[in-house]
Design a protein that fits this description.
- The chain has a domain of 26 residues.
- It is mostly helical.
- It is flat.
- The chain contains four helices and no strands.
Length: 87
Amino acid sequence: MKKAIFCLVLAATTVFGAQAFAQDAEEGETRSRFYDFENMLVEGEFRSPDLMNMEGRGQAQFQRLLDLKTSFLPKIQESTEEAALQQ
């Protein structure tokens, strides 16, 4: 019984769905439009890019980061000798 109802609903959907796509355009209705911009005058001025964009990226400065590359081994050795870490 469920198969029969499913097949009936499927057939009805297929038939009525196909009719919806097959409808013709009503008379007087245009399906596409053509725009002619040939006679239009656009007033304006050319703009150049900002100086910031023209220069691109500046040279990166890594000196501050290079200063961080110091050795921490002496401080680590000092911290191992602290009383809190001794057993």
